[in-house]
Every structure is written in C-alpha cells, then in structure tokens.
Amino acid sequence: MRGTQVSQMSAWATERFGERAAQVRGQLAASLLEASGNAQDAQKSSRSGKRYAYGSTLMARRYEALLDGFRAMPGFQSVRPHGSPHHLVVLDGNLFLPFRYAEDDTTPISEARVGDGRVSALVRELFNRFGPAPSYYQEVLDIATALPQDADAEAAEQAELAAARPVLAQLPDDTRLIPVAYAANAQAGLLRLHWGEAELIDDMGRVHWTHCEQIPLLSALPWVTPAASPAQRFDEGAEPGLDLTRRPAAERSLFPVAGSGEVTSIAAADERP
Fold it and tell me: What's the pLDDT tens digit per position in 140-154?
C-alpha cells in the first residue's frame, strides 16, 4: 500500500519530501481536520450565534495540530518569530504556512488571499525570504502605492520585521515556503485543502501560485487491515453492544450532519499568522 501511495504523488511533492511525501500530505490533512473539528466543538460549546469561538480556536489549533502531527518526524523543526504567538513547522527545509482562503467549496484556489485584510509584515517577510522569486513586482508597486499607510503603522511594521528577522535568519537559506490553503466553516468543517508554492503579489494577501495541488481529505484516514481470524458461525460471535459513541472530528468534518444553517463569516482573528 505504501508503494501505491508514493507512486500517486506528484513529482513536486516527491522532490520536496521523497518517499514519505504521501505521509506528509496525509498528516497535513489529518492535522487540519483535527483543528477544524476542535474549532467546531468549541463553537457548539459556546452556544453563541457569533463565530468568535470557532475563529479563535481554529487560529490557535491549526498551528498546534501541525506541531503535534509532525513533531516525531525526522527533519522536524519549529520556529516562532518574535512577536508571534504561534510556532511554524519546518520539515526537511519546507516551512508550512496554513491559512484560510474561503468559507465554501466553490471559491477557486486561484482567488486565494492570505487573510481578509492587509497582510502583516511577518507574512510579507516569509514570502520574500522563502517564497519563489516574484514575477509580479511591478503590480506589487502599483497596488501598494494605492494603499497608503500612516507613519505610525509603518514604523510598527518595521519594528516587527526587525524583531522577526534574526529568528528567520537562523533557518537555512534554501528553506522553501509551502503555503497550506484551506476552505472551512463552522457548519461543515474542513472542505478543501491545497498546498504548493506561491508568491505574494500585493499587500492585501493575493497570491500567484507557481505550483498548487489539492490534498484529498480522505488521505488523512488510515488504511486498516483487519486481522485474519478462523471461520465462525454467525451465531458464535460475541453479541454486539449498543453503545452510542461520538463520531471523531475527522469523520464529522468529512461527513457532516445535514443542516440548514447559513454559512457565516469566520472571525477576522482566524486569519492572522
């Protein structure tokens, strides 16, 4: 089974992660399914019509679940830039940046934005330092000029960059940024997941994908091989129990209970790396 999974991986994924590319891809799906399920549970527990519980929980858990999922893998590192509350995962020289690009499963990944507003100085630095060489340089200048910024905000961004750069400089120069873009909402959970390489083309978080692949959410589910057992008559086995158990978060996300709830906006805090 392992050989079959590897053979189905793209040349890009295999070049980045070798024979364990399928394992890495599956762990990304599993971690973000877990984070989304945790956020849905928090939203239900809040008993609020507002989506703050979902947004704030997903904001934290998307980073924590990636850390927990990849921590035991060879080649794992974590980095926490100064001023950021979150640790970023680096695996085999690849830095994962998770972000929500949509609340539905119809928005094209080509329209992805890193957040709902102006990106932080840290996000720009990650793309500039570890992303592909920009090919939309003139467009960046034109759009940035159209978005004036006051002197205090600009000074704050420069201070943020000055504090973050020494930590990022400790990573090897050949570290590559891998944006991990997902679509999710509080009703249905995780809907779509993509990874690849992209360049940031403006201060509003728009990206141009130089390579992008969709990650099947089913790749997170483990293959289970039942143990062989001697043949039995149908009435010789143990009587099945009737215990009712809660479905795991991954299953709830993949197969949500049908409902008529309207998709609502996720809190803006969810979009700040």
Answer: 444 444 455 567 667
